[in-house]
Specification:
The chain is mainly α and 82 residues long. The longest helix is centred in the C-terminal third of the chain and has 31 residues. It is globular, with a radius of gyration of 14 Å.
């Protein structure tokens, strides 16, 4: 059994902790696990899950975090141009 950790999610898409904090990643991990539970009709605990469940959670969380990080970059660019 494995635990999905924020750093393992950030490593998937090469993000730093300053780009997406542990708090944000942890909330996204919970959201991803809940989404997978609903879609697969399973009970999944991201703190104690199988390797396969962890991969699915990491991949879905990485998508969420990539979107979050992208929005932050866009906001920064808009502020610079104003």
């Amino acid at each position: 059994m494995v635990q999905v950790m924020p750093q393992s999610v950030r490593e998937r898409i090469n993000l730093t902790e300053s780009a997406v904090s542990d708090d944000v990643v942890n909330r996204s991990i919970v959201d991803a696990a809940e989404t997978l539970e609903l879609e697969a009709d399973l009970t999944i605990d991201p703190d104690v899950c199988t390797d396969g469940e962890a991969v699915a959670i990491r991949n879905l969380t990485a998508v969420y975090c990539y979107q979050i990080e992208g929005r932050a970059c866009i906001r920064t660019l808009l502020r610079v141009e104003l």
